[in-house]
Amino acid sequence: MSEQMIVRRDKLSIQREQGLAYRNTWRSTTTLSAIRSQYGEMSAEALVEMGIEVSIAGRMVGHRVMGKSSFAKIQDGEGELQLFLNRDALGGADIYNPTKKWDLGDIIGAKGTLFITKTGELSVKVSHIEIISKCLRPLPEKWHGLSDIETRYRQRYVDLMVSAESRHIFRTRSKAVSLLRQGLESRGFMEVETPMLQTQAGGAAATPFITHHNALDMDLFLRIAPELYLKRLLVGGFERVFEINRNFRNEGLDATHNPEFTMVEFYQAYADFNDAMDNTEGLIRDIAQGLNVSKVTWEGIEVDLTQPFQHIRMDEAVFEKRPDLRGHANDKALLATVCLQEKPDVKPLLTWKAGHYLLALFETLVEPHLQQPTFITHYPVDVSPLARRNNEDDTVTDRFELFVAGREIANGFSELNDPDDQRARFVAQAQAKDAGDAEATGVDEDYLRALEFGMPPAAGVGIGVDRLVMLLTEQHSIRDVLLFPHMRPE
Q1: What sign results for the dihedral spanned by CA atoms 154, 158, 163, 165?
Q2: 64 in the same domain as 12
Q3: Beta bridge partner(s), residue 254
Q4: C-alpha angle with apex 175: 170 to 177, nearest 5 degrees?
Q5: What is the model's pLDDT at position 223?
Q6: Are 129 and 187 in a shared domain?
Q7: Is 266:184 a contact under the CB 8 Å cutoff?
Q8: Angle at 165 between CA 162 and CA 169, to 5 degrees
Q9: Both 237 and 121 in a single domain?
Q10: Listing from the earlier edge strand, what are the strands of the sheet with 197-198?
Q11: Which of 96, 126, 332, 359 has its CA at a distance of 20 to 30 angstroms from the CA of residue 305?
Q12: How many CB atoms lie within 10 A of CB 440?
């Protein structure tokens, strides 16, 4: 232990002897932000005349001792307020003197009367004070800069103590999720919960986590997406459903990926991908308005969320960068050659078709340059195993992805409800898995059985909540919007 920790523990020992350590008897009557909101604009004379008494608690983040008097600043979850302590007002030296030895970080409770100091600061003239919880580790003096980033993530509790910006980010996240839920419910969607432990991982291209259930003696998968269960509910007759919850994917960690993350998926019967795009754009704009956000700067790009989102087909987006490919969207040999030129590190599987190479070209040539909110539409069937084929061109699907500042925010499509077509796509996925594609899925027989009962035409969307919050709070790493991101062991 450091010298400071030893000193603090000695103080705790005295509190234990006196029966004052970690008691649970304090009750506050209000919060510090409520006090500022209600009385912050009142005059000193009005406050004195009203004689407003309060009972408050918070962490001590500042302390100035001046003989018989001292000033302490406390902080709760929503704000800060100054306390004025006077020896005589507290009942003498026996009560006042111990407070001079309290440490920054200690959680204290105080009762007293509101007043305004000569310097114009709203404060509490304390008549009673007690220590509620001892802080045994000293708070950091500085909490910023590259050297502290990893510690901020590992010790989020300290980060939240000392960083108003971090507290604001996570309050914004909470409000954004609430607005998302309200937006879906106002559109007639019902919130549901589907299994996180699944007998077969599906609904996305990702490597799952595997666990084992002892009683049933069977392996289970942490879900990579709720999609196939939500669409089972469409079969059952619920025509508008959504779920906001965690997905788990056994993948690397970077600025936009964490092994567990939050997504919303919503599905609407008797709708297509155009309806899904309208809902997606409307929801994002509603959330931004609810947060009073119209423009954000993300990845150095000013993004205007008030303007209509752009729409462009994937193949057309690639053709704009490589005009020589126009008319050759299904020419596997040519696309493979160009793909290897543009992306030398690409590692195609033997099962790759033309659509896989077109997607790889899109990711290299187009995706990084999609700055303003843009829907990329009509993905190839080869890379869209759950999406419905387009009526005019059966080599592409009625699928879209939404990109902002070069990053994917949402994915959606008209749902494939033909069980025979779906079986063929599942079989192709299983073959890809056998060929070494760790992210490919197998054949989900129960889901196919559900489709055979008849699923209405529908459209669905998945939005990455973490990435959406990153955009709305102008954060550049997913770890800055996750309270407890995954880290390597210390």
Answers
A1: positive
A2: yes
A3: 257
A4: 95
A5: 95
A6: no
A7: yes
A8: 120
A9: no
A10: 197-198, 218-222, 210-213
A11: 359
A12: 21
